[in-house]
Amino acid sequence: MAVQPAPIRLSLTDLHESVDDPALTSMTLLNELAGRYPEAISFSAGRPFEGFYDVDDLSRHLTTFRGYLEDEIGLPMEQVRRTFFQYGRTKGFIHELIARQLEVDEGLTVDPESIVVTTGCQEAMVLLLRALVRDERDVILAATPNYVGFIGAARVAGAPLRSVREDEGGIDLEDLERQIAAARREGLRPRACYVVPDFANPSGATMALADRIALLELARREQVLVIEDNPYSVFCTGDSRLPMLKALDEHRQVIHLGSFAKSAFAGARVGYVIADQPVTSDGASSAAPVLLADHLAKLKSMVTLNTSTVAQAVIGGYLIENGCSLTRATAREAEVYRRNLAATLDSLNSVFAPMPGMPHGVSWNAPTGGMFVVITLPFPADDDMLEYSASKFGVLWTPMYHFYAGTSGFHQARLSFSVLTPEQITLGVERLGKLVQDQRGKRLTPGAPGSPR
């Protein structure tokens, strides 16, 4: 009788190191805890407000976009039908509407051909990092704390990240210059620096206009690209917004990542990248440069082929109905975020300001927009404490050390207020206050549930 071969068994050591990277598992943990404690008030989800969603809007957006194809573009019915149902153009077909939106809202004129429409901003990150990092000598600098999605994209793309300090005013430009110099001394090639200039996730930090200009000057002097990710800029508390880095870019230094997840709706999974940098061929100096966008499109053709044509059509209709202005389209949501930010800061002050004698104290920042506030706690805010918080006090938050790739932020938590009501925010902060009081009592009782490990 023939001996049956043993079933194939895979070990983690057989797989790419990113599959077991903590940066790629943090969001899974948060979703799992939210599922286990559905009654807990969750400050952990970074989702956009969903109170204005209406399923009927989807069909209207599609109809609007169909009218645009027929009336403004002049496509015959057969080609309209093909646009909706067939494989689409790799670079996307709403690039001209995105360019129009950037001009309306940002005063920014871009060549539509420099835009690649992607399957969410996450794909744009992976494609860009894959393109920029040629070998192990190439490194990407990033303001830290950093968006978990960018950390994860770098792991998947095999792009080494080098941390640069961030404070309430955004990326520390002196430290950026030091990190660039240090990398070069080590024989490395700093290729680009990733920043979120407005209401960064997770810190809520915003760069001043002078710092934005100084960043571009530094990047040009050091011959480093700037990767701008700016999904929260329309959600400011004031009447005027600072210009995007791309709007200040006079030398094609900035690669801009865009997303409709926070403005339109995340379920569409539509993002984009503006990559108008000319790429020359070393072996053919007389050949005309090709845009970086075209090279990214080649990579995309081997990853997702094209971004969903139906999703693009829905977003296209959404833009057309709002005069290609995200500021106009998100006016109601922006008001909700302003209200919730005020409620969060008021509640934190009400609950924690009267607490005397806290070891190291409880403190928090005060962003001027966006969806996030960071609170510093007098005890480790790790995953074990998060589960204790959910099970014992019914409140969820995000440990900040996930945004430092596990190297810092161990006493901090990110509070996301985007999907909550003011009443939920008040109750949630009160529950967080009870957790702090609980831990305060356990500082003298090591080994008790929820106490330091």
Model description:
The protein has helices at 26-36, 55-72, 77-85, 95-106, 120-132, 148-157, 173-185, 209-222, 292-301, 309-321, 326-329, 331-352, 383-393, 422-442, and strands spanning 41-42, 115-119, 138-144, 161-167, 170-171, 189-195, 225-229, 254-259, 270-274, 278-279, 290-291, 363-364, 372-376, 395-396, 398-399, 412-416. The chain has 14 helices and 16 strands. Helix content is 40%, strand content 15%. The chain is globular, with a radius of gyration of 23 Å. It has 453 residues and is of the alpha/beta class. The strands form four sheets. An eight-stranded mixed sheet has the order 2-9-8-7-6-3-4-5, sandwiched between helices. Strands 12-13-16-15 form a four-stranded antiparallel sheet, with helices on one face. The chain has a two-stranded parallel sheet with strand order 1-14.
Task: Give a quick set of tags describing it.
single chain; 453 residues; alpha/beta; 8-stranded mixed beta sheet; 4-stranded antiparallel beta sheet
Average pLDDT works out at 91
Order of helices and strands: HEHHHEHEHEEHEHEEEEEHHHHEEHEEEH
Shape type: globular
- Gyration radius (Cα, Å) is 23 Å
Fraction of residues in helix: 25-40%
Please summarize the sheet with the most strands: 8 strands, mixed
Beta-strand residue percentage: 5-15%
Termini distance? 56 Å
Low-confidence stretches: none
Assembly state here?
single chain
Secondary structure tally: strands = 16
- Secondary-structure-based class equals alpha/beta
Give the helix tally: 14
**Strand line-up across the major sheet:** 2-9-8-7-6-3-4-5
